[in-house]
Amino acid sequence: MFEIIRRDGLARIGKFTTRAGVLETPALLPVVNPKIFTVTPRELHEEFGFEALITNSYIIRSSEDLRKRAQSEGLRTLLDFPGIVMTDSGTFQSHMYGEVEVTNEEIIEFQKSIGSDIGTVLDIFTEPFWTKSETAASIDVTLERTEYAASVKDEMMIAGVVQGSVYPDLREMCARRMRSMDIDVHPIGGVVPLMEQYRYEELVDVIISSKKGLSPDRPVHLFGAGHPMILSLAVLLGCDMFDSASYAKFARDDRIMFIDGTYRLEDMLSLDCKCPACIGHTLETLKALSKDERTRTIARHNLYEITKELALIRRYILEGRLWELAEQRCRAHPELLGALRKLGEHGEFLERHEPLSRDGAMFYTGTETRNRPVFRRYRERLKERYIPFTRKAALFPEAGRPYGRHYAEDFRRVRSSGFTPVVLSPFGPVPAELDEIYPLAQSLFPGITDAETDACVKDAVSLIREKGYEEIIDMNSVTDGNEIFDPLLERALAVARYQFGAEAAAAMFSGRMEFVTSRNTGKIRNVISNGEHILSMRAGDGLFSLRIEGAERMIASVPGEHMRVVVSDDAIPFVSEGRNVFCAFVKECDPEIRPMEEVLAVNGNGKLLAVGRAMLVRDEMLSFKKGIAVKVRDGVGKV
Amino acid sequence: MFEIIRRDGLARIGKFTTRAGVLETPALLPVVNPKIFTVTPRELHEEFGFEALITNSYIIRSSEDLRKRAQSEGLRTLLDFPGIVMTDSGTFQSHMYGEVEVTNEEIIEFQKSIGSDIGTVLDIFTEPFWTKSETAASIDVTLERTEYAASVKDEMMIAGVVQGSVYPDLREMCARRMRSMDIDVHPIGGVVPLMEQYRYEELVDVIISSKKGLSPDRPVHLFGAGHPMILSLAVLLGCDMFDSASYAKFARDDRIMFIDGTYRLEDMLSLDCKCPACIGHTLETLKALSKDERTRTIARHNLYEITKELALIRRYILEGRLWELAEQRCRAHPELLGALRKLGEHGEFLERHEPLSRDGAMFYTGTETRNRPVFRRYRERLKERYIPFTRKAALFPEAGRPYGRHYAEDFRRVRSSGFTPVVLSPFGPVPAELDEIYPLAQSLFPGITDAETDACVKDAVSLIREKGYEEIIDMNSVTDGNEIFDPLLERALAVARYQFGAEAAAAMFSGRMEFVTSRNTGKIRNVISNGEHILSMRAGDGLFSLRIEGAERMIASVPGEHMRVVVSDDAIPFVSEGRNVFCAFVKECDPEIRPMEEVLAVNGNGKLLAVGRAMLVRDEMLSFKKGIAVKVRDGVGKV
């Protein structure tokens, strides 16, 4: 049903297959009022390319005429929309007006009867001002109704709404309890008041706690989120679907959406938009239109602004740079900046989904960039996996990257005195052996630092002390010496420990070691141990690709699940001959595997089948029915 | 010639009047190669609305055919362009190829002969890698050539290029020495290598040092700056004109400009642009165009991207929010972020041009927002102009704004015990009396703070200690008491001191004081002293408008230039009857006056003529020939 095509952390480009067609996510579903079309559904499809829309089954049911037509013709004909039609249930009306005159059973049955492709449960809207016990009680009702809806859905897909007000533990519990139900898509509900009140920090907690509970193989829909300003952040946190009634509602109030906020037509001082709806208009000509024409023009502008941002988000995901887009967008309002800062409290969850490396350089856009999981990961792996090669460390200040090139002469000098060169970088201390891995070499910082970065650099010294060096000196006071050291070995071993852990690295680095280096750059290409090619280093991110020989050593020496993906029996012949591992054939998986990490595909007895890169984390591999779990590089051959 | 219509700090919307028409600034002049039109000059005018362009007189002169046609038909006919034509002199060619075969005299004469509206001196391009003495020597030549050009210009306007490599003192000196020459527009030259190498921090120094030296009544042109990414920052620093050859040059290399950077067509993963040039295209169809068609399409896209950003910049200036746009844009690249941080080193110059208040709220977009001059100004005026009303201070933590509303009950309680409530805010300590003035009440910060803000709040306590309070307590340990205090008087007096200085405030607040307050909000509206209405408080920014009676007291008690603008004799009858003061009639002015500050218009003997708000600072008032210097609110009547 739902498949990941590309990912960037929690963000994903996906394909959601329905009976009425495939929806590419991230996607926004415009909300269509069945009584008034500000922009017709056909235009939404043909001019704007929307593959799906939402309309309200409660409103249709409440009008005799619409109800009869919907039941006889079906929704697609009623709306004249050739794509996917999702229906809402009346829950939002109960939030607005206190109650609705329909039961969950009735509205589910009605949605089926009018041919909705995705029907929604009549869940209970948990208001942000509710007490925790009030919220918990209402979730029980929502879960009961959801279970009922899932059990009678037949051909209709079911949207099971996660509720829980502003209580993260209730959100996670609600989401987790829906895992076992037969649900197709999960809206996160009850968030419109938070967005209306700019309570974006709480919105972050709500989204992340829901994501923690939900099954990753189902698309997540942020109900009522339609402002382009918020989309990149929501996608970054793993939301796949959105909807917008605002494009039309705002237009009726003469409010124009831009990526940096919403402007009232009467307050605007100039119109500076060249979208297909605005082109040819000045502020004056737009104001002079008839009310209907103006509403239609502004609604079309709003839709262009939304589709433009979604296309941009898609591009940034493809480029692996969505963090950077979200960091730019969150400057549009201080409360959005607060939301960005809030991510710092969710480092562990974010790190679990963060790819091992990316294609491009990491741009530092401000102190908030420190919330990116790469900072946390580097620090933790340095603590757990880095083992000093010498008893003495020489500290160097931050400089051009990679440091080994910038400090070439200095590094040689201190190394020959038995010191490990360590740069006090904005990521923390960087021993010379690690200076080429992502993101240490592949990152750009401004020349003028901030207090957070200064504190991190200062703290780097204490991190180095914890490593147990006997002597730590400043780079300027080094005297010449003549100890033996092997920079290639130390770099290769430090990177292998960083990437695979100390135990696995020790298993691979045994016997006589040789290094094939690049003639041009002098960088390590291949690592040979006792004549076997065990690892290849990638020039782009400075990390290793695992070879079959290296993997066999890891299997032999490190027991347990470490870096393993267990493949089910029917897939063994394919995987061992080098075909990719698909999700449907993953039996188990090391929970410590991160996206883009090197992994070992093994059979149920732990025998090696292939090596490759993980595309997904454990929870995802075990949830998805479709899609690639491991991109295999090499199989062991026929088994 | 050049007139300011609206300003936002150093940024300005201006009108530059030439013989060929009026150029609205900020403006970009597309560079047109006289040999190849990627987009024709007529299209630049009619499709894109460009009022001016640049072409290269050196290239025209070097081609026999073009030279003859230009001299017989004139440039406007040769190019078929109905707007303003500026010409470049060959300096950039000397930077590119080492030297040019023309003298300054020849190229000036040639530019006149082909009817250039704005001709450029053959200045010497100061490379960023030049030594200081080398640079200084070349500036002497440039100045000599510029003086010559200005002396023979006749009807042609002259662009006098500021040079000085990366040496701020040389830039300022060069600019200052051009003040006395008859020059019409000042390009800042020699900056292309800085922009190509992303050396934006140095670019900031170059622009600001040039601005410091230049006469403010002449437009400033940042030579070679054409990427939309850099425009908002450059306008923020007071650049009025730009040019772009890149729109076409990049297009020929299949490079597409976006606000967040330049992308190679071959690296792009999707095309997400709905500009009039791109609409209907996908990445595939764009790639499939013939080389010429593709170049033309990308060039038109690049021009749309530039004009869109310029329109946006204009809107943000009108809204008084250009800082916020620049702060968003500078997240696109870490070196741009460095440039934004660099502004912190130029606080004094920036503060001098910073308006006293703005219409909208100030948005905090990150630690870099602390570089905004409002932070510096508040801190300095607090130190110099705030005088405690009590000997005891009660410190409150940051809260909802205005603090007096948030802490209403608490403030009353501590005041009744003889304490002045002081909030430890992100701006520093805010005594209760000042809590409604701009930007203290009119600002939004994220809920989660950063280290810089935390440090500022901490430092606020020591700032309060310097004020000489005998007792400073934490808000939680206050006991009830019963001293007499007058919150209206204290607020009015504290704001008057902040705005006009302690001496002027003392002069105005004498005798029996009364306060007219708003029935709804309880806020001060009018201040009455001995029966005279001396001041009115604005609800928007919490600051005072000065009344004639208040102004007369200031005149009587504070001697010297303080807050005065001296009007020349011929304007006296008009100003005293309430007409605005135009620049041409300003004889002298207090250098401490900031934009939007309340000022006194006086005659040569110091007699009051009118009160109003300054639009400009001293240097600007004395330089400009056109435009409003003081918006007069009230005149003293016929004199």
Topology:
The structure is a homodimer of 639-residue chains.
Chain A: E1 2-8, E2 11-18, E3 21-25, E4 27-32, H1 41-46, E5 52-56, H2 57-62, H3 64-73, H4 75-79, E6 84-88, H5 91-97, H6 104-113, E7 118-120, H7 132-151, E8 157-159, H8 168-177, E9 186-188, H9 192-196, H10 200-213, E10 220-222, H11 228-236, E11 241-244, H12 246-252, E12 255-258, E13 261-264, H13 283-288, H14 291-319, H15 322-329, H16 334-342, H17 347-352, E14 362-363, H18 373-385, E15 392-397, H19 403-406, H20 408-415, E16 419-425, E17 428-431, E18 443-444, H21 451-466, E19 471-474, H22 487-500, H23 502-508, E20 513-517, E21 524-529, E22 532-537, E23 544-546, H24 548-557, E24 564-567, H25 572-576, E25 581-582, E26 586-589, E27 598-602, E28 608-614, H26 618-623, E29 628-635
Helix pairs in contact in A: 8-10, 10-16, 11-14, 11-15, 12-14, 18-22, 22-23, 23-24
Overview in brief:
Two copies of one chain form a homodimer. With 639 residues, chain A is an alpha/beta fold.
Secondary structure class of chain A reads: alpha/beta
Question: Number of helical segments of chain A?
Answer: 26
**Spatial order of strands in the largest sheet of chain A:** 6-5-4-11-10-9
Helix % of chain A is 25-40%
What is the strand content of chain A? 15-25%
Largest interface, counted by CB within 8 Å of the partner chain's CB: A-B, 49 and 49 residues
What ranges of chain A have pLDDT less than 50 throughout 5 or more consecutive residues? 477-483
Distance between the termini of chain A: 32 Å
- Silhouette of chain A: globular
State the total count of DSSP E strands of chain A: 29
Question: What's the average pLDDT of chain A?
Answer: 94
Rg measurement of chain A, Å: 28 Å
Described by its quaternary structure, the protein is homodimer
Largest sheet of chain A: 6 strands, parallel
